[in-house]
Amino acid sequence: METKEAILKRRSIRVFKDTEVSKEIIEELLKSAMAAPSALNRQPWVFYVIKNKDILEKIKKISPFTDKNSNLIIFVCGNVSGINPLNLNDFWIQDLSAAVENILISAADMGLGSLWCGVYPRVERVNAIKTILKTPKNIIPFAMIHIGYPKEEKEPRTQYDPAKVIYID
Ligand SMILES: Cc1cc2nc3c(=O)[nH]c(=O)nc-3n(C[C@H](O)[C@H](O)[C@H](O)COP(=O)(O)O)c2cc1C
Predict the structure, then answer these.
(1) Is residue 116 in contact with ligand 1, taking CB distance under 6 Å?
(2) Is residue 169 part of a domain?
(3) CATH number, domain at 130?
(4) Which of 74, 82, 126, 138 has an alpha carbon 20 to 30 Å from 18's alpha carbon atom?
(5) Protein residue closest via CA to atom 5 of ligand 1
(6) What is the number of domains present in the chain?
């Protein structure tokens, strides 16, 4: 698939088939994530790949924002050792966002559906996920990505709006 096609094909999918996503495909997704650019090439990320049914259930129970039926969730987390997460001068949020988007586009490219659910900076979500995943102090859950084979179809699209573009020639 062409890159542009995969970018347009990436849509938020909220209904998934039971079909398991293979280890090889998960690794491809993680390779895409870790190809992302990061400020000073610091790569301040850690990925929690959740297939365990009990943990998936716990995640789905804590809040309506997680009630999707995928059997695979990847948490993209920030490793904030040496970083003050409240320091607005830091780029870790951009770094992690780039990694998340790479996963979503790569998933679309391989025929998978995905859904980005925001965790950070909602403190209650961050803390709930930290408790479930038992993360060390320096690891901040940033985004939760549901991944699986799609059970709903969505049209590829852009939301191109020329009114949102300012050219300065
Ligand atoms: C930071 C972020 C947080 C999001 N959180 C949620 C969420 O909690 N639940 C949800 O169903 N969708 C969530 N979405 C998906 C958006 O609703 C979706 O991207 C938007 O409606 C556009 O649709 P599309 O992804 O199909 O283009 C989130 C997207 C982003 C980028």
Answers:
(1) yes
(2) no
(3) 3.40.109.10
(4) 126
(5) 117
(6) 1
- Tell me the pTM: 0.95
Residue 85, in any domain of the structure? yes
**Whose CA is closest to 38, among 94, 82, 81, 83?**
94
Give me the sheet containing 139-148, strands edge to edge: 45-50, 72-79, 139-148, 113-118
Name the residue of 68, 116, 146 to mutate for ligand 1: max ligand atoms within 8 A of Cβ: 116
Evaluate whether residue 35 is within a structural domain. Answer: yes
Residue 118 Cβ contacting ligand 1 at under 6 Å: yes
Residue-by-residue pLDDT tens, the chain, 169 positions: 799 999 999 999 999 999 999 999 999 999 999 999 999 899 999 999 999 999 998 998 776 555 567 999 999 999 988 776 566 568 999 999 999 999 999 999 999 999 999 999 999 999 999 999 999 999 999 999 999 999 999 999 999 999 999 999 9
- The DSSP call for residue 150 is B
Q: Which domain holds residue 152?
A: 3-164
Residue 69 CB burial class (10 angstroms; 0-12, 13-18, ≥19) = middle
**Residue with CA nearest ligand 1 atom 27:** 11
Q: Hey, what are 103's tokens?
A: 């996963």
